[in-house]
Write a structure and sequence with these properties.
The protein has 190 residues and is mainly alpha-helical. Helix content is 58%, strand content 7%. It has helices at residues 26-47, 55-72, 90-103, 119-144, 149-172, 184-189; strands at residues 12-14, 20-22, 111-113, 179-182. The strands form 2 sheets. Strands 1-2 form a two-stranded antiparallel sheet. A two-stranded antiparallel ribbon has the order 3-4. The longest helix has 26 residues, at 119-144. The protein starts with 11 loop residues before the first strand and ends with a helix.
């Protein structure tokens, strides 16, 4: 089987279920963004030792992103044809991992941070910002066609998780966080 089909030469692509749409369609743009996220997750995983404690969880997230992209690539009227699981419970998975990470850190996360510090922390910020872009695209798509709530919850928590992972990477490397300013809700308390 050849990898190229030539069916996209005129600026269209096929969605799951056989529907053809323009390559800049909101649905294609949305799942394409998460394809980028997943590629950078692969890069992040390649930078970690194979026995690093994050590997299994990051692998799980990559698989769930593939399933999520398949749902994003399926038009509403073709949903019954998609047999891949939705990311049910992945919001709680992300929350639990964040809670575990944050409980092991020496300081609270009440500041915006400048991305960087080391390669792993910086890559976590790249992934976080790509997820936020993808989340904005999901909302645009959701205004046109309903996106399952489990996807909305998963993606929202996922970006927060990568903020926590960046902090954990810095602490593991014994590097300081470069703080920019306190979160608004923290400034209002003071």
């Amino acid at each position: 089987m050849k990898i190229y089909t030539k069916t996209g030469d005129r600026g269209q692509t096929g969605l799951l279920g056989g529907v053809r749409v323009d390559k800049d369609d909101a649905r294609v743009d949305t799942y394409g963004t998460f394809d980028e996220v997943n590629s950078f997750l692969g890069l992040l995983r390649s930078k970690l030792e194979s026995n690093h404690p994050w590997q299994n969880n990051l692998h799980r997230i990559q698989v769930e992103l593939m399933n999520t992209m398949s749902h994003l690539a399926t038009p509403t009227d073709k949903k019954e044809q998609n047999t891949l699981p939705l990311p049910e419970g992945m919001d709680r998975f992300c929350e639990q991992w964040m809670d575990d990470l944050e409980s092991g850190l020496s300081s609270q996360s009440d500041y915006f941070l400048l991305p960087g510090g080391n390669e792993i922390a910086a890559l976590c910020h790249v992934v976080r910002s790509q997820i936020r872009r993808g989340e904005r695209k999901i909302i645009t798509l959701h205004k046109q066609e309903k996106v399952d709530r489990s996807i909305l919850l998963f993606i929202n928590r996922l970006s927060d998780l990568f903020f926590s992972l960046s902090r954990a990477a810095l602490e593991e490397a014994n590097l300081p966080e470069e703080r920019w300013r306190a979160f608004l809700y923290q400034r209002e308390k003071r």
